[in-house]
Specification:
Elements (H helix, E strand, L loop, with lengths): L6 H17 L40 H10 L28 H9 L11 E10 L2 E6 L4 E6 L4 E5 L24 H9 L16 E10 L2 E5 L5 E5 L4 E3 L2
Antiparallel strand pairs: 1-2, 1-5, 2-3, 3-4, 5-6, 6-7, 7-8
C-alpha cells in the first residue's frame, strides 16, 4: 500500500513541472558586441574651386542729386604747381669805359638815366641863395646862373651883371623877413623871372659865396657843396637833390 501512495505525488510534481515549462519562455541571450576596427582616414586632396569669372554688371546710374552730393562730399586734392626755376641773371658788361667806384658807382646805380661820367669832379667858386620856391646857384667856371624850382624844373641864364652896375632896384621893397636878390641873381630875378611876381618868390636868405665842385656826365651834371648838398641837373630840364 505504501508504495502506491507516492504515485499521486509524483504525478502532481510532473504536472507542475510541465506547467512551469509551458507557461514561461526561456530568455534569449543578448548578442555579444563585437568591436569593429574603423579604417584610418586618409588625406584626400580637395580639388581647388575654379574662380568665377567676373560678370559685366552695369553699375546703377547715379541720379543728378546723388552725383552732386558725391562731388561735394569728396574734396579734390590741391594741385601744387612748382615754380619754374629762375634763370641766373646774365652779367652785363659795364656800359662805361671803366669800372666805377665810390660816388660815381653810387650815382650810376641810383640814377641810370645819368649815364657815365665824362670827367672827374672839378672845384670851382660858387654863390647860392635860397628862395621861397627854389634856389639860385652861380658858377664861376661857366659864368652862368642856375634857377632850380621846387617843382623839379630848372633853367639857366648867362650872368650879365658887371661891376659898377646897381646891385639892386631901390624901388622894390621886400616883405619883412624876405630879401630882394642882388647883383647877378637880382638882375635875372627882375629881368627874366618877373621880379616880385616871380614863381621862385623872394629870397629867404641873403646870397652867399661857397666853394663847390661840378662833374659832367653823359646826360647831366653834378653840382656839389659837399655830401649833404648835392644836386643833379639832368639835360631834359629836370633836377633832383641826391639823397
Amino acid at each position: 500500500m505504501n508504495r502506491f501512495r507516492w504515485i499521486p505525488l509524483l504525478c502532481l510534481l510532473l504536472m507542475l513541472a510541465l506547467a512551469a515549462c509551458g507557461g514561461e519562455e526561456a530568455p534569449t541571450p543578448e548578442p555579444t558586441a563585437t568591436p569593429t576596427t574603423q579604417p584610418a582616414p586618409t588625406d584626400t586632396p580637395i580639388p581647388p574651386t575654379p574662380p568665377t569669372p567676373p560678370t559685366d554688371t552695369p553699375a546703377p546710374a547715379e541720379t543728378p542729386a546723388a552725383a552732386a552730393e558725391s562731388v561735394l562730399a569728396t574734396p579734390r586734392a590741391a594741385v601744387s604747381l612748382l615754380p619754374s626755376p629762375t634763370p641766373a641773371p646774365m652779367l652785363e658788361p659795364d656800359p662805361c669805359d671803366q669800372a666805377l667806384t665810390g660816388q660815381d658807382a653810387q650815382l650810376a646805380e641810383q640814377y641810370p638815366v645819368l649815364g657815365c661820367p665824362l670827367a672827374a669832379p672839378e672845384l670851382t667858386q660858387m654863390a647860392r641863395q635860397s628862395f621861397q620856391n627854389g634856389m639860385m646857384i652861380w658858377r664861376e667856371d661857366e659864368q652862368r646862373i642856375y634857377v632850380l624850382h621846387d617843382d623839379g624844373r630848372w633853367r639857366s641864364f648867362e650872368d650879365t651883371f658887371e661891376e659898377g652896375q646897381p646891385e639892386s632896384d631901390e624901388s622894390i621893397t621886400a616883405p619883412d623877413g624876405l630879401y630882394q636878390p642882388i647883383r647877378g641873381f637880382g638882375r635875372i630875378w627882375r629881368e627874366q623871372l618877373g621880379g616880385p611876381q616871380a614863381e621862385i618868390g623872394w629870397g629867404t636868405l641873403p646870397e652867399g659865396a661857397a666853394n663847390g665842385s661840378t662833374q659832367r656826365w653823359e646826360h647831366g651834371q653834378l653840382i656839389s657843396f659837399g655830401l649833404p648838398e648835392r644836386f643833379l641837373i639832368f639835360n631834359d630840364g629836370r633836377w633832383t637833390r641826391v639823397e
